[in-house]
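Morning!

This is the sequence you dropped in the shared folder:
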Amino acid sequence: MDNTLERRSQAHIRGINEPVIDRYFTELNKGDFISVSEMFSPEGLLYPPFEKEICGRDLIASYLQSEAKGIKVLPEFGMLKDSGDGFNTYQVMGIVKTSFFCSQCLLAHPTQSSKGNYVG
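The structure's back. Tokens below.
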């Protein structure tokens, strides 16, 4: 990865002031899927593209280990959306690089409950 992409992958996400969101993408880029899964509540849900949701930290870590090896996510900007049900939804846009393709897309919808449980 060239220096420009490396700097962008470590940069703060424009429009979002939530350290755990920055950490989510930092740990994902490192391939530390255990750390990523521990950011979810014990029954947290991961909604992978084109697949059924994955429930629970262990299953999330296993899924990421098998499906996200080598992935680089380059978040560019995001926004907080109030869903009106006690949860905040963070929508993040950016670039995803895999060994198969590089595309600009929606990266994640991590959400935070009023009790601080995170669901991706």
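Headline: Residues 21 and 115 are 16 Å apart (CA to CA).

More detail when I'm at my desk.
O.
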